[in-house]
Write a structure and sequence with these properties.
By secondary structure, this protein is an all-beta fold. The protein folds into 2 domains: about 100 residues, no CATH class; about 150 residues, Galactose-binding domain-like (Jelly Rolls). The strands form 4 sheets. It has a 5-stranded antiparallel β-sheet with strand order 3-4-9-6-7, with no helix packed on it. The protein has a 4-stranded antiparallel β-sheet with strand order 1-15-12-11, with no helix packed on it. Strands 2-16-13-14 form a 4-stranded mixed β-sheet, with no helix packed on it. A hairpin with a 7-residue loop joins strand 13 and strand 14.
């Protein structure tokens, strides 16, 4: 079977400019299939959820904090990010928690919190939990929130050299949706809980669309083309639909064939 790229028919990302027509009869059978893809996430980090102060609840007791805190913007307690040790600290008795009613089932995928204290390590374990009724809570994952030199980042993602900055936890890889989520302090692990400013909540990133596979026929040759945003899909071929599937070496889109076999199946593998 001959294979390759026809002159003037486009490059790796081009198109095979011939009509797409069905192929029938006993002379040639090409099967176009998809291998079961693994879970692939899109390149973004998941959209920031614009949490309103009215969605929040929980005790307003603190180990230390500016006076008169309530639920307000910047979320959660109105304390802006700063490096002047001017933030809030949940109590050492582990009564601190923050509950969020998103108003509808929500796939929470990332929690971020800003440490406002640059002068030394602090640490606590925060449980991230979810609920369908705001009464029965189920643990999702624990957040080992320990500040350390070089552990936090600035808003642009650059690494800090002190203990301040953004710290984060990624969770919920299966994108499970719950209306109620909460952050609950379970234990103090280093001195006392970190002093904090803002918190952010992000959705899980949307799955990337699977590659699309297309077939075109110009009367003598077949073009198999595909669109793969990740540029990682591999074309495979087999004589039977059940296999044995083999990678097509050095394949690119469009892949041009001069068929000499009566039957061949093709698929993409992630």
């Amino acid at each position: 079977m001959g294979a390759g790229k026809l002159p003037g028919r486009g490059d790796r990302r081009g198109r095979f400019n011939v009509p797409t027509v069905p192929i029938s009869g006993s002379l040639l059978l090409l099967g176009l299939l998809f291998a079961q893809p693994s879970t692939v996430r899109s390149g973004d980090e998941g959209a920031l959820i614009p949490v309103a102060a009215t969605w929040l609840s929980g005790p307003l007791n603190f180990f230390a904090s500016p006076a008169g805190l309530t639920f307000q913007e910047p979320i959660p307690y109105g304390v802006p990010n700063n490096l002047a040790d001017g933030g809030w600290i949940w109590p050492n008795d582990n009564s601190g928690r923050l509950e969020i009613d998103f108003g509808a089932p929500t796939a929470l995928g990332r929690v971020r919190v800003y440490s406002t204290y640059p002068g030394g390590p602090r640490g606590a374990t925060w449980a991230i939990e979810h609920s369908t009724d705001k009464f029965n809570w189920i643990g999702s994952v624990d957040f080992a929130y320990t500040t350390k030199p070089g552990g936090g980042v600035n808003g642009d993602g650059s690494v800090r050299t002190d203990t301040a900055g953004w710290y984060e936890l990624r969770l919920n890889p299966n994108s499970e949706e719950f209306q109620y989520w909460r952050v609950r302090q379970k234990a103090v692990t280093t001195s006392h809980a970190p002093r904090c400013g803002q918190m952010e909540f992000h959705l899980t990133p949307a799955p990337a669309a699977p590659p699309s596979l297309h077939l075109a026929w110009d009367g003598t040759r077949v073009a198999i083309s595909w669109v793969d945003p990740t540029d990682k899909a591999m074309l495979q071929s087999a004589d039977k639909i059940t296999g044995d599937w083999q990678d097509v070496p050095r394949s690119f889109s469009p892949w041009i064939l001069a068929p000499v076999e009566t039957r061949k199946f093709y698929r993409l593998r992630k």
